[in-house]
C-alpha cells in the first residue's frame, strides 16, 4: 500500500446556510433571477431556501444599460461614405499574403478586398480602390478608418486632398 498525494487538490464548495446556498446556485447558474433559482431548487432538487436581498456585482453590471449611440450618418448615394480597415498579419501560406484591406461602402454595403504582402502596400490599394470607385461613376466624399499609420501617411493625405475627399479617423478602443 502506498500513499498518493494528488497533483491537483480537490476543491469542495460548502454552503453553511440556506441563504448562501441560494446565492451559490444563483452564481453557478449564470446569475439567474433568484425567484427562478428558488423555484428550481424547490421543484427539481427538493431543497427549500429563502430569498435574501443580496446583490452581486456581476448582477449590477449585467443589468446596467448604456444610452443608444444614435443613428448613423445616412447616405443618399454610393461612395458618399467609405469605411476602411486592415486585418493581419496572418501566416504567409496563402501566396505569401500576410494582410488584407477591406473597403466598405455605407450606402450599398459593397465590400472590396485587396490582399497585401506588406502593410506598406495599403496606400497603393487605397488609391486603386478610389480609382475603381471613380471609374464606376461614384464620387467618394468621405473615408473613415482607424488611426493606423497605413491610412495616416503623407501619400494618402495628399491624394485625398487633391481629390477633395474628407478623411476621418475613429477614436481608439471604440469598436462601435
UniProtKB/TrEMBL annotation:
PROSITE patterns: INTEGRASE. Pfam families: rve. InterPro entries: Integrase_cat-core, Retrotran_Ty1/copia-like, RNaseH-like_sf, RNaseH_sf. Signal peptide: none annotated. Residues 74-176 form the Integrase catalytic domain. GO terms for biological process: DNA integration. GO terms for molecular function: nucleic acid binding. This is Integrase catalytic domain-containing protein. It comes from Araneus ventricosus (Orbweaver spider).
Amino acid at each position: 500500500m502506498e500513499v498518493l498525494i494528488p497533483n491537483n487538490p480537490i476543491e469542495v464548495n460548502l454552503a453553511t446556510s440556506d441563504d448562501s446556498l441560494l446565492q451559490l446556485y444563483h452564481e453557478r447558474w449564470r446569475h439567474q433571477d433568484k425567484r427562478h433559482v428558488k423555484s428550481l431548487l424547490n421543484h427539481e432538487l427538493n431543497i427549500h431556501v429563502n430569498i435574501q436581498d443580496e446583490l452581486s456585482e456581476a448582477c449590477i453590471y449585467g443589468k446596467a444599460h448604456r444610452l443608444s449611440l444614435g443613428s448613423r450618418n445616412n447616405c443618399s448615394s454610393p461612395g458618399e461614405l467609405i469605411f476602411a480597415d486592415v486585418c493581419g498579419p496572418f501566416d504567409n501560406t496563402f501566396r505569401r499574403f500576410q494582410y488584407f484591406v477591406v473597403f466598405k461602402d455605407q450606402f450599398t454595403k459593397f465590400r472590396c478586398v485587396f490582399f497585401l504582402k506588406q502593410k506598406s502596400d495599403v496606400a497603393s490599394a487605397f488609391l486603386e480602390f478610389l480609382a475603381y470607385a471613380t471609374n464606376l461613376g461614384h464620387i467618394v466624399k468621405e473615408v473613415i478608418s482607424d488611426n493606423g499609420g497605413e491610412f495616416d501617411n503623407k501619400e494618402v493625405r495628399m491624394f485625398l486632398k487633391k481629390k477633395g475627399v474628407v478623411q476621418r479617423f475613429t477614436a481608439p478602443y471604440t469598436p462601435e
